[in-house]
Each structure stands twice: as structure tokens, then as C-alpha cells.
């Protein structure tokens, strides 16, 4: 039988891997071109990520159109798209819409990273790519024009990215990646070398984070043999090539000892969840773990919940007003733009998180 057509692993309706290693994705994101978006006042372009220690990486950059040609510097956001580590793209229509809206509302310069996908590149390849892209973005934004560096300049980041206001974010699996990047930053890059120029992450925003674990939480139900649960376990084993268990810190940060939260290298953190998302209680407990660890040196842990919505609802295309999506994007933008206050320090929840604390 032809190994290029003989099925090895069938993960329908998402993808199929054949004996030859060929992967056919049954859910293929609609790619859209970069350019000016009149509705949001944001302009984007696609770039290759070079000098990043990983070949073949790319990104879509987003900047408010009215900033181009000026000397205005804005907060720098590095964003990782979701897709359970195996699907979707930074160049998709859904994620381009999301980034356009976030950049417009937040007034940031964003780098949306196109990283390698599993199963061709099993976890932790995505984490390595995320770290490499973050280093590249920080270095590019830190580089002075005409500095004589041997590395080519990225003019948008060089002119407009402010590494003193550095944020890392992602949705679903991309939120998982943002968490891992912040841990690596707090540990000095895992090899004794942190971010260029001693840059520090101001905040992370985890939008509907993709976390799991062996022990069920209430939002996941009570049946360990439910079809959704079995798919979740099978999927994780598939995307990490069986290397890591269902309670490994890559998929279950709540399994970390409290002292290890000290390594989370950011001053502020935000987690958004949706009421109907089966992973929502893991997001809530993530915030509770931060607040209760006694080890994390951060100052603000914010929880934002959307009622009556499911996982990554904000990626949907809306023909008219979409209040739930607009309010969530406004909340994330507020987090990016806000400075810390005495009321929002660790252990003293901000007003934005109070409506969710009862469920922690």
C-alpha cells in the first residue's frame, strides 16, 4: 500500500497523518493578504524572522496607520495564534481581524508569529519558535537606526516598538505558549541568556488558555471517559509525540509547585475565559495560583470572563455589532494600556476581576 495514502493517525475532523509522514489538514485557515485596514486604521505587512536561531520563521506585523512616518513609539506586543499546536496561522483572516482590532484599540505595535506546527514539529518546537521570535522582536525594536549592526533592520519595530512596554499574548494554544515564554524569560532563557538588553516582560495576556490536566475540573464535567476528554488526551499525546504526560507543566501549569511560579517573568498577568468553554476553570485557577503562590513577584493578576460564550468566540467574523467580542477586546486593550495601581497589586484584585472571583 502507498505510505502516502495509508492512514497512520486519523484525527478527523481536524487532520490526518499518513504513514509517509504527510499531513493533510482538514481545517485550513483562509489566508488573507497583509495591508491597510480602513475599518480599524491599522496597517500590516509580512516579514521573515531572521537571526532568531530558528530557520523558516515568519511574522505579520501590525501598526496603527497614523504612526507610520513618525517617531512615535508604542508598546510592543508579541502574539501567538491558537490552534491546538497543529492548526491555524498568523496569516489567517480570523487572526488578522483579531490583531487589527487589538492594535486599533490598544495602540500597540504587534508581531503575530507564524511558528512551526505539530505533528510535523512536535511540542516543544512551538515554544522554541516563540522564544526565538520574542528575542528577534525585542532585538529589532531595540536596534537604533543606522547602528551599524550586521543584522538587517526591521524599520517598523526599530522606529515604533518600545521594549520598555513589552507584552506577550496569545489565544488558546498561543496563550499556553505565552505562559511558557514568560517562564523562560524569568529563568534567563533556559540557558543563562535572557532577553536582549535586559528587557523585561511587562505583562502577559492569556486569551482562553489551552491548559489541561489529569484531574478533571468542574468546567470539564465529571466523566473521565467522555468523548471530549478522550480526544483531549489523545490530541496532546499526538502533538507532543508522546513525550509528555497529561500533567506535564507544558499542558498543566497548575501542577507546578507554588514556589515555581516565581519564575514567571512578567509584572502583570491577565487571563480571559468564557463561561461555556470547558477549559474555563483552568484559566480561573491559573489566576488563583498566581495570587496564592506567595512566590510570584508580579503586581497584578486580572481575570476577565465573558458570559454565555464558548472557546475563542472572539475569532468569529461579525457582520454587525458583536458586543461580547468588542467588550473583551476593550478589556484586553485596557490591560495593555493601564499602569499598575495600589488597588491592583497581587492579592488585591482589580475591579475588572471581581466579577469572576467567586468562581475561583
From TrEMBL:
Keywords: Hydrolase. SUPFAM superfamilies: alpha/beta-Hydrolases (SSF53474). One of its GO terms (molecular function) is hydrolase activity. InterPro entries: AB_hydrolase_3 (IPR013094), AB_hydrolase_fold (IPR029058), Carboxylest/Gibb_receptor (IPR050466), Lipase_GDXG_HIS_AS (IPR002168). The keyword Hydrolase applies. It comes from the Eukaryota. Residues 77-314 form the Alpha/beta hydrolase fold-3 domain. Belongs to the 'GDXG' lipolytic enzyme family. PANTHER family: ARYLACETAMIDE DEACETYLASE (PTHR23024), OS08G0475000 PROTEIN (PTHR23024:SF396). This is Alpha/beta hydrolase fold-3 domain-containing protein. It comes from Urochloa decumbens.
Amino acid at each position: 500500500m502507498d505510505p502516502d495514502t495509508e492512514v497512520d493517525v486519523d484525527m478527523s475532523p481536524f487532520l490526518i497523518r499518513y504513514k509517509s509522514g504527510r499531513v493533510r489538514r482538514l481545517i485550513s485557515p483562509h489566508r488573507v493578504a497583509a495591508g491597510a485596514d480602513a475599518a480599524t486604521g491599522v496597517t500590516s505587512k509580512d516579514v521573515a524572522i531572521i537571526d532568531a536561531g530558528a530557520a523558516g520563521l515568519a511574522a505579520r506585523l501590525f501598526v496603527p496607520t497614523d504612526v507610520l512616518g513618525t517617531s512615535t513609539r508604542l508598546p510592543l506586543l508579541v502574539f501567538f495564534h491558537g490552534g491546538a499546536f497543529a492548526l491555524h496561522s498568523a496569516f489567517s483572516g480570523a487572526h488578522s481581524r483579531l490583531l487589527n482590532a487589538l492594535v486599533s484599540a490598544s495602540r500597540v505595535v504587534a508581531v503575530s508569529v507564524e511558528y512551526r506546527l505539530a505533528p510535523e514539529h512536535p511540542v516543544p518546537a512551538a515554544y522554541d519558535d516563540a522564544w526565538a521570535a520574542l528575542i528577534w522582536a525585542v532585538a529589532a525594536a531595540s536596534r537604533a537606526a543606522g547602528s551599524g549592526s550586521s543584522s538587517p533592520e526591521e524599520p517598523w519595530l526599530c522606529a515604533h516598538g518600545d521594549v520598555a512596554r513589552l507584552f506577550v499574548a496569545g489565544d488558546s494554544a498561543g496563550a499556553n505558549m505565552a505562559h511558557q515564554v514568560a517562564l523562560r524569560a524569568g529563568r534567563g532563557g533556559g540557558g543563562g541568556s535572557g532577553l536582549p538588553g535586559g528587557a523585561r516582560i511587562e505583562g502577559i495576556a492569556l486569551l482562553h488558555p489551552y491548559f489541561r490536566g489529569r484531574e478533571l475540573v468542574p468546567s470539564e464535567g465529571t466523566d473521565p471517559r467522555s468523548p471530549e476528554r478522550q480526544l483531549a488526551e489523545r490530541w496532546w499525546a499526538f502533538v507532543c509525540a508522546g513525550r509528555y504526560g497529561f500533567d506535564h507543566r507544558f499542558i498543566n501549569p497548575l501542577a507546578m509547585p507554588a514556589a515555581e511560579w516565581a519564575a514567571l517573568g512578567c509584572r502583570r498577568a491577565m487571563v480571559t475565559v468564557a463561561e461555556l468553554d470547558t477549559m474555563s476553570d483552568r484559566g480561573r485557577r491559573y489566576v488563583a495560583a498566581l495570587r496564592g503562590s506567595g512566590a510570584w513577584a508580579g503586581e497584578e493578576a486580572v481575570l476577565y470572563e465573558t458570559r454565555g460564550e464558548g472557546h475563542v468566540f472572539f475569532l468569529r467574523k461579525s457582520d454587525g455589532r458583536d458586543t461580547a467580542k468588542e467588550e473583551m477586546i476593550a478589556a484586553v486593550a485596557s490591560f495593555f494600556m493601564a499602569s499598575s495601581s495600589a488597588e491592583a497589586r497581587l492579592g488585591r484584585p482589580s475591579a475588572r476581576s471581581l466579577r469572576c472571583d467567586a468562581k475561583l
